[in-house]
UniProtKB/TrEMBL annotation:
Transmembrane segments: 48-65, 77-94, 100-121, 130-148, 180-199, 227-248, 306-325
Coiled coil regions, renumbered to chain: none
Source organism (scientific name): Cohnella silvisoli
Pfam families (UniProt xref): BPD_transp_2
Principal localisation: membrane
Places the protein is found: Cell membrane
Keywords: Cell membrane, Membrane, Transmembrane, Transmembrane helix
Recorded topology in the membrane: Multi-pass membrane protein
InterPro entries in alphabetical order: ABC_transp_permease (IPR001851)
Name used for this protein in its record: ABC transporter permease
Amino acid sequence: MFRTSAVILIALIVAFLIISLVSSQPWHTIQIFMFEPVSSKAHIGNVIEMAIPLMFSGLALSLLFKANLFNLGAEGIFYFSGVVAASIAIHAQLGNWLHPAVAVLAGGLVGALLSAIPGILKAKWNASELVTSLMFNSILFGVGLYLLNYKLRDAKAFATVSYKFQPTAILDKLVPGTRIHTGLIVVLVCIVAVHFFLYKTKWGYELRMTGINRNFAEYSGIKTAKVIILVHLIAGFIAGMGGSIEVLGMYNRFQWTALPGYGFDGALVAMLAKNKPFAVIGGAFFLAYIRIGADQMARMSDVPSEMIAIIQAVIILLISAEQFLKFFKNRMLLREAAKDA
């Protein structure tokens, strides 16, 4: 926890130094960046709204990373599951609470099935999950965009958007005057469930042991191939729910004409959280907070919002460096132990 806090602090110091060099009013600009996200009810709502999909993607990727699987397929699953949920939101005739529940469940199941493909390839043939998941992102985006353009698109709208969702499919708002929706409750329940799964069940223990050392886990009798497929199914289901909930909670039409970016952002959230479910909440809120701060800074000062990319890059660089140094230190210790033996 201390190391992660130090990484965040260093990244913010670097950002402040750059702001002081770029801005004509650096102190005022830094104040906007730091405090504007909590200056009003609407801005606080924006932070929470942005944190919801980040928590879903961060939770999904933290599970995969916990199993030592570097899978970035949540990006494509987020998009395609949103298309699936939008289709049900447009065409199905269901009741108020049942309609969004069916749409979100369908998106989650589709996400689980799609995520299982790289999982099976990894488990059976040791195919790189990073390569296959990135390839699937492009495939899912292409298929989803085709469905949007040729099956769901509203020809009367002056943009590439779907028909309007039925009112019964849109998620209820929790706080008047904001767009904070019931997806917040769902993702918090998912975080508690994943924590229980990881640390209180036999399957969670097998997942953690597989992530620490797959060869040792197999030697201990754990069927690691099944573990790999299982974690892909669970992570895909969570990511699929996240994409569906984001679409039904924040929009009244499907309007993503590019990959939303939440899947890749989830990797950063998972790294900040050290792959711990409850810490995902803090990681997601931190990333959402600085993004809203950067957006307000771009609106109210002379510093562009792209500043946030620098902060993210520094965080990733420092976390990666920490992991590299830890690996190098472990190898040195093993060599010394071998010499002593």
